[in-house]
Amino acid sequence: MALTQRAARHLVPRITCKSAFRSLSSGSANPVPLLPNHRVHLLFGANTDVGKSIVSTGLVRAAASSQHYASVNYIKPLQCGGSDESFVLRHRNDDKEKCTTKDSYGESDINCQTLFRWETPASPHLASRWENLPVSDDEVLSSLQSSLKNIDGIAESSTGDGMSSITIIESAGGVLSPSSSSPLNKSTTESNWGWSTQADLYAPLNIPLIFVGDGKLGGISVTLASLEALWSRGYRVDAVVFIEGVDGDSSDDESSIQFGKGNTEALREYITMQLHNVPKVGLNHVKRKASILDQDSIICLPSLPPMPVPLDDWYENNQEEFLKLHH
């Protein structure tokens, strides 16, 4: 069913909280106060098909199973075709009927929502133009901030100030993939609505992130380039996750090579070499950000089972790895 512009723009109501807060701020929107026990991670990927939704689901499952969080939340700000929210809900561990969508906050330990949706399976900057449903950078940030504040309001009213909340925000495409376009964006020209890259869109919020690298042959370069782009914009990368890649075009000899593990080791070596080459005057901006990423925070998960084998056993076997990413 085609969505109307009004339906595509879901804005979560603002709820006022009365506890001690920390703030996420945007360059154009007012700072949004968050409860100090609300943990938020933004999830970026090196490219479109590296497993962002796979990792997001694993993080949500692990957080819910740990029983350390009163509220576990998944937010997809921009969705073009399909539904990553549905994927997360479909692969929820154990009691799948306990999962809820954005309209059932507080009734479950997992809450999922998609903020802006287009039917066309294309880049957001194109889908928004083709469907004539523009969404500006300010609208995305405002809606996301309102959603995070709403989570705080629900958590505080239902659980007091005891247990924590956790939210995973999954970006669209790669680090420099376009966000949605709008005539309200500053980069608009006479011929086209303007747009920002994903990395530029979310940078003002200063949210720490978990990065999904490319575990296939050729993935080292795109992974390093993406991380450099993130660090140069001031992002703090808390962890990097690779999923062992399977190249369908590989020969029998090449298919036995574990490129994911090789890419993982290459990233560890790269960071070590960067830190060893620090000049005596101190760390530059990018190296300071890279120094936060320790060796144990760079992991490689085994390859996914071939379709149509269900993912439940794969998630169960890697539960401990996903739990480590929350610490």
How would you sum up this structure, described in words?
Mean pLDDT is 83; it is low at 1-20 and 101-108. This protein is an alpha/beta fold and 327 residues long. It is built from 12 helices and 10 strands.
Topology:
Layout (H helix, E strand, L loop, with lengths): L4 H4 L13 E3 L7 E3 L3 E8 L6 H15 L2 E12 L3 H7 L8 E2 L9 E9 L5 H7 L6 H23 L4 E7 L27 H5 L6 E4 L6 H14 L4 E7 L8 H4 L3 H18 L8 H7 L6 E4 L10 H6 L1 H6 L3
Parallel strand pairs: 3-7, 3-8, 4-6, 4-7, 5-6, 8-9, 9-10
Antiparallel strand pairs: 1-2
Kindly provide the radius of gyration, computed on alpha-carbon positions and rounded to a whole number of angstroms: 20 Å
Distance linking N and C termini: 41 Å
- Low-confidence stretches are 1-20, 101-108
The main sheet orders its strands as 5-6-4-7-3-8-9-10
The main pleated sheet reads as:
8 strands, parallel
β-strand percent reads 15-25%
**Structural class label:** alpha/beta
